[in-house]
Amino acid sequence: MDAMPLTKPVLRNKIDLVAKAFSRLKGIKEGLVGADAGGIQFDEWDWEVGVGLYGFLRRASAANDRLAIDDLVDWYARQIARGLPPRQINSTAPMLPLAILIEHVDRPEFRGLVEDWADWLVHALPKTEDGGFQHVVKERSNDGELWDDTLFMACLFLARAGVVMGRPDWVDEAVYQFMVHARYLSDPVTGLWYHGWTFNGRHNFARAFWARGNAWITVAIPELFKLVPELNSKDKRFLANVLASQVRSLKKLQRPDGMFHTLLDDPTSPVETSATAGIAYGILRGIEAGILPAADRRHAENALAAVLAHIDNEGVVQGVSDGTPMGHNLEFYRRIPNLPTPYGQALTMLLLTEVLLEGEEQE
C-alpha cells in the first residue's frame, strides 16, 4: 500500500479517482465527483448506482453542500422524466437516497414516488412463506427465495420512507423483514449469514457464507439504526446481538493482511475486496451507532488498509468477485473470477466517504 498519510485531501482524491473509474466501468464519461466536475453523470437506475448515490448523499448532507445536493436533485429528475425500469428488489436501491433527499428539497413528484414505491413493496412485491420479501430481480423471479442482500437493497428504503412519511406500519414491515431474514439466513453457531434460503425444498442452497452477502448484513443493521432513530428498543436489542454475533466470527476470519475470502471460512477461496470494504464500513457504522465496541475499529482499519492497497493508480478497485447468483455448491463460489466491477467501486466509495466524514466530524 502507498505509505502516503491518509489525510483529507488524499481521501478526497481517492474518492474522486474511484468514482471516475466507476463511470468508466459503466461506460459513462464522468464520475460522481460533485458540481465542480460537471455534476452527476451516472445514467442508469441500478443497485450499484444506488450504493454510490447513498455515499454521495451522506457526504453532501454532512457538509451541507447545496451544489452536490442540487446535483442529486437533477439526477433524480432526469431519471424520473425519462421513465424508470420495472420495480424489483435491486431497482429499489436508488430509492433509499431519494427517501432521504426529499427532506432537503420540496419536490412533490419525489415524495409521490417514494410513497408509491414503498406501498408497492408492502402490497405488490411477491412474498415468500412467512411474508418475506421474495428476492425478485430483473433476470428472474426467484420464487420462494430469501437472499441476504434484500435487506440493504429494499428494506432500508422502506424503513426510511416510513420515518419520513409518518408511516410506522412501513417501519414495522421493514423491521419484520430483518427478523424473518435473520430466522432463515443467520447461522446460530457462527453468527454468519448464508447467501440464501428457499422454501421450495427448505434449505440454504450451498450453505455458503458468502463474503459480500455477509457484508450487506454488516452494513444494513447499523444503517437501520441510523435511519430509524426511534427504533423499538426490543428490536434494537435483537438486531444488535445479531450483528455482534456476526462480527465476532468475522474478526476471527479476517486475514492478517486485512482481507476476507470470498467464502469467509474457506482460505482456499479468493480474497475479495468489495466484501472487505463493506465489512469495514459496517463495523465503523456499528461503532458509531453504539452497537459494536470501539476496540473493533482496528479490524476496520486493517480492512481499510487492505482495500486501499487494491486501488490502482487509475482508481480501479482490484480483487472484486464478479456478479454472484445463488450457488448450489461451494465450488461455484470458488470459481467466481475476480475482476473490476461497478459495485466494487461503489462499496469502496462508501467506505472512503465514511472515513472522510469521521475525520471531518472530529475537527
Tell me about this structure.
The chain has one domain (8-358): Glycosyltransferase (Alpha/alpha barrel). It has helices at 8-25, 47-63, 66-82, 95-101, 108-123, 150-164, 168-185, 211-227, 233-253, 273-288, 297-309, 330-334, 342-361, and strands at residues 145-147, 196-198, 260-261, 271-272. The longest helix has 21 residues, at 233-253. By secondary structure, it is mainly alpha-helical. Helix 6 runs antiparallel to helix 7 (168-185) and helix 8 runs parallel beside helix 10 (273-288). The protein has a two-stranded antiparallel ribbon with strand order 1-2. A two-stranded antiparallel sheet has the order 3-4.
Can you lay out the helices and strands and say which pair or pack?
Elements: H1 8-25, H2 47-63, H3 66-82, H4 95-101, H5 108-123, E1 145-147, H6 150-164, H7 168-185, E2 196-198, H8 211-227, H9 233-253, E3 260-261, E4 271-272, H10 273-288, H11 297-309, H12 330-334, H13 342-361
Antiparallel strand pairs: 1-2, 3-4
Q: What fraction strand?
A: under 5%
Unreliable segments (pLDDT under 50, ≥5 consecutive)?
28-38
Count of domains: 1
CATH class: Mainly Alpha
Looking at CATH, which topology would you report? Glycosyltransferase
N-end to C-end Cα span? 26 Å
- Helix content range of the residues, please? 55-70%
Q: Return Rg in Å.
A: 19 Å
Would you report the number of β strands? 4
